[in-house]
Give the backbone structure.
Amino acid sequence: MSASTRTDGLRIPETVTAVREHFESGATRSLSARIRHLHALRAMLTDNEAAFEAALWSDLHKSPAQAQLTELNVVVAEINHTLRHLRRWARPKRGPVPLTLLPGRARLVSEPLGVVLVIAPWNYPVQLLLNPLVGVLAAGNTAVLKPSELAPATASLITRLVPRYFPQGAVRTVEGGVPEATELLAQRFDHIVFTGSGAVGRVVMRAAAEHLTPVTLELGGKSPVWFDNDADLPAVARRLAWAKFTNAGQTCIAPDYVMTTPDRVPALVTALKDAIGDLWGADPRAGREYGRIVNEHQFDRLVGYLGDTDVVIGGEHDRGERYLAPTVVTLPDGGRAAVGPRAAHPVLREEIFGPVLPILPVASAEEAVTVINAWDKPLALYVFTSSPRIRRLFEQHTSSGAVVHNAALVHAAASGLPFGGVGPSGIGAYHGLYSWRSFSHLKPVLAKPLRPDTLGLAQPPFTARGVRLLRRLMRHG
């Protein structure tokens, strides 16, 4: 494939122009068109479940159950949630009118933004491409999709299916790598959704600035865990192991490191070992439920972490298979606990994005808060405690995209909650109503009758009495 073509032969500028012309025709604006497009997207997934399962197995060694749980079901649930609420979201809302503009009436009318570009990562190549698309279509927009070239089977499947289910061109895809993404970003869009690393997020934001295009950036980072729930240790370990090692740890909201007090570390390690065995068996490589690392570059990076740590669980690896076992490491004494670029150990300096879980001993929950606040705001924070005081401590004294108590990962499946980061972990949010808000413009429509002409009070010539009355009315709020 050349640097600027799609599978149907259109060049990238022509593709974007075609999608814009379809939007400007008005074909996507009606509520019936939006509902029809959502049904088409759902049919694309449900009619082709076996093909999606096969593609995800090829790209990431995801079993059919994992493909359903973490990819297909999440998007179908988002579509169903949106269809249930779409008519209410789309209904114009009455807006407030101040005393100075009475008698007048105001409405808030939502309108689509236009053409939205969705750039997806490789780790959840269906969910993170199509979940934003649900809101894009529900709001009446058209879309250009850029699936990840690092999940080629899934990207190819989606590119083949989209013209079949969106034959009029409300959605189009562009396959390829960095050259295609770069050319796409040179085009004018009305919104860009990007999920991936902070480094590439900065590139996207710079490109968007050229056209003053708003962005939704979901970037990730080091999502921390606090643990002190000794009474429920087996349940905690199982939830923690599941969240960390699902998709071989290649999840932007996976627990990145665990903080606990030194006396709790041995028991936590033992419980995690038992949980890993329960979930994936004594040899995860032999089963069908444990994933693989996406490519050799990522594999080499992850294995490189192991040399500077004490591997207490796992560590087995095979480059030919891109297999890295669920691995838990503890860290030699390096002084003050820290994460980020100044951390003593490489595994704590950047987002791990793989099946390596460090346990970082700290003196107390208060010190854990200090560690979290010393670096970038994380995309998610997980707190395993039975203490209401400790829960409040993390809620009130840290900032993150989300806080989840006694679980991890699960908030991404809650269509009624916004999903997004804060600061370096992301800009904006989507899911459900929050997708609707992100991909719509809420337009005020104000009607002011010509009679009676109450605006005369605000027009010259002014009288002292009129100014006093106007001041009273305006300051009323």
Remarks:
- The first strand starts at residue 93 and ends at 95.
- The first helix runs from residue 12 to 24.
- Residues 1-8 have pLDDT under 50 and may be disordered.
